[in-house]
Amino acid sequence: MNLKVSTRQVDGVSIVDCSGRITLGEGSVVLRETVKDLLSKGQKKILLNLGDVNYIDSSGIGELVSAYTTVKNQGGELKLLKLTKKVHDLLQITKLYTVFDVKDDEAAAVKSFR
Amino acid sequence: MAGDRFSYNLDSTLETVDRAEQTASRIASETGFDEDEVMQIAMAVREAAVNAVLHGNAYDPEKKVALEFERTTRDLVITIRDQGKGMDMARIPDPLSPENLLKTSGRGIFLIRSFMDDVEIHPSSTGTEIKLIKHVHGMTEGGKEASQ
């Protein structure tokens, strides 16, 4: 299943609910365009909810890194919420788990933004 | 189950990447690997197919990706071959080094090596061949399930 996203606002934080796969091609493009669109609207507190993302390939990992650095370079923050085991394991072996700020609880995650 | 061989000659497209992954998933599952192993094998094949289509053949419609699965009593061996200029092994980065950690690419070969038991990469001027090997667990040399 390709990536589907929907965005909602909670206390000034843009929560992007993602479901499906973040892979080379459409999935990566959807994520990139979503983050780009939020930044263009000045929304720089972004929480990617990956609770329903069951698969990410190396291109998808690259897209997460790109989103993270793009938001950071614009003075914002991008955090990850609710990783599935597969995504968690991938971030562990690529040593990116310590780079991203990963949260399990949505309310706590929203509060953690400055 | 042992001794089967399946070969595919595929176009240099994104559809090939998906098809290679799906075929790997099906064959790995039929071979008896568990769910995690099936995911790992399918992902390794996907990454190798991405390399072949993008970096090897560069989407050239004249160039093909050869995909082959061979099941022996000991291993599942998957070979992916492109018709590109040959991978430059010296340019494969270490994605875990601090200076590369935030790079947006360069993790494919690393993931392949992480997920498979053995990986052989043979670049040449007529293309790159990558061989992915996953050992079949719980099988004796004769192909029967181990009694323990």
Q: Could you explain how this protein is built, in words?
A:
The complex is a heterodimer of chains A (114) and B (148). With 114 residues, chain A is an alpha/beta fold. Chain A has four helices and five strands; from the N terminus they run E-E-H-E-H-E-H-E-H. A five-stranded mixed beta sheet of chain A has the order 1-2-3-4-5. The longest helix of chain A is centred in the middle third of the chain and has 16 residues, at 58-73. The mean pLDDT of chain A is 95. With 148 residues, chain B is an alpha+beta fold. Helices cover 32% and strands 26% of the residues of chain B. Chain B has three helices and five strands; from the N terminus they run βααββαββ. Chain B has a five-stranded antiparallel beta sheet, with helices on one face. In chain B, strand 2 and strand 3 (75-81) form a beta hairpin. In chain B, helix 2 packs antiparallel against helix 3. Mean pLDDT of chain B is 91; it is low at 140-148. Chains A and B meet through helix 2 and helix 3 of A and helix 2 and helix 3 of B.
Neighbour order of strands in the largest sheet of chain B: 1-2-3-5-4
**Separate helix tally of chain B:** 3
* Portion in strands of chain B: 25-35%
Nearest-integer average pLDDT of chain B: 91
Number of distinct helices of chain A? 4
Span between termini of chain B: 20 Å
Q: Largest interface by residue count?
A: A-B, 20 and 20 residues
Structural Rg of chain B: 16 Å
Q: Based on helices, strands and strand pairing, what is the structural class of chain A?
A: alpha/beta
Given the C-alpha coordinates, what overall shape of chain B results? globular
What are the low-pLDDT stretches of chain B, counting only 5+ consecutive residues below 50?
A: 140-148
For this structure, the quaternary state is heterodimer
Our Rg estimate of chain A from Cα atoms comes to 13 Å
The first-to-last residue Cα distance of chain A is 34 Å
Q: Roughly what percent helix of chain A? A: 40-55%
